[in-house]
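Need residues for this backbone.
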């Protein structure tokens, strides 16, 4: 029974990391940039949920507002900070992303203070199946993560916008020649990534209902690690990397001897995989055209 609980917890945590990693990998795959402010969009979503939970007391309303607000913030960041740097060097874009990250953290600290805030969700009794006890919020996170990832996969594969994203990822110049507005595709990508970050903020709060201005930092770093492990730029790779890290985390926490070194183990896995397969598990090496 303990194995089943660990498996469910691992898949639940992995689903959160996968959702965040999808934001990283989609932006990188299409815009060819690493948006290190993505983790802080999670924090923005978390604080929005905190505020509207206090105002309305209704989780669904709070989550809906958080998704909309995060989409607006994500699109604004792309328009103001990243779009003017479309032809700039990768280093300039990276420095800008780090600057945006610290800006969001500083604004959150100014508005909400440095003390962690407690988000109160309705108390739901765990499900008891024989000797097996499963937290309802863990199941909600797991099921919702699976649904979101399936819907995103179908969206990318079968819609015109999704196909435009795939085309832009393969060859931006050729996509523009086909009459597709690449700037709009990148903006939509940021909007989807930001919406996923808001949902990830909700699920992370269900797991640990305390929020501060650095709330999204560690989940963001781990999700970026998951994206790299799976193959940065690959949507299935982001999902696989997130699930892999979630399972490692859940198993490590259940072994007292290695529990304190969980983070180190996860980053060690990253190093090993990059040494064996530099492009990631599902990543593909691309030859640069000269």
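Answer:
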């Amino acid at each position: 029974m303990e194995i089943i609980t660990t498996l469910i917890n691992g898949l639940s945590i992995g689903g959160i990391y996968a959702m965040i990693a999808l934001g990283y990998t989609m932006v990188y795959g299409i815009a060819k940039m690493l948006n290190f402010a993505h983790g802080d969009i999670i924090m923005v979503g978390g604080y929005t949920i905190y505020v509207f939970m206090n105002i309305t007391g209704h989780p669904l309303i709070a989550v809906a507002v958080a998704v909309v607000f995060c989409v607006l913030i994500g699109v604004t960041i792309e328009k103001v900070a990243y779009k003017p740097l479309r032809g700039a060097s990768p280093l300039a874009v990276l420095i800008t992303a780090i600057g945006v990250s610290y800006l969001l953290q500083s604004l959150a600290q100014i508005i909400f203070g440095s003390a962690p805030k407690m988000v109160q969700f309705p108390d739901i009794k765990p499900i008891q199946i024989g000797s097996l006890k499963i937290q309802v919020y863990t199941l909600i996170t797991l099921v919702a993560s699976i649904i979101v990832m399936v819907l995103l996969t179908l969206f990318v594969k079968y819609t015109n916008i999704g196909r435009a994203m795939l085309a832009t990822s393969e060859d931006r110049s050729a996509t523009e020649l086909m009459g597709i507005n690449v700037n709009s595709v990148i903006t939509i990508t940021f909007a989807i990534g930001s919406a996923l970050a808001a949902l990830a903020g909700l699920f992370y709060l269900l797991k640990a209902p305390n929020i501060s201005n650095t709330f999204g930092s560690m989940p963001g770093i781990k999700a970026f690690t998951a994206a790299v492990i799976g193959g940065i730029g690959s949507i299935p790779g982001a999902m696989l990397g997130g699930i892999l890290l979630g399972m490692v985390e859940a198993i490590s926490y259940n072994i007292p001897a290695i529990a304190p070194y969980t983070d180190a183990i996860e980053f060690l896995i990253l190093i090993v995989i990059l040494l064996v397969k530099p492009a990631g598990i599902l990543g593909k090496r691309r030859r640069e055209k000269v």
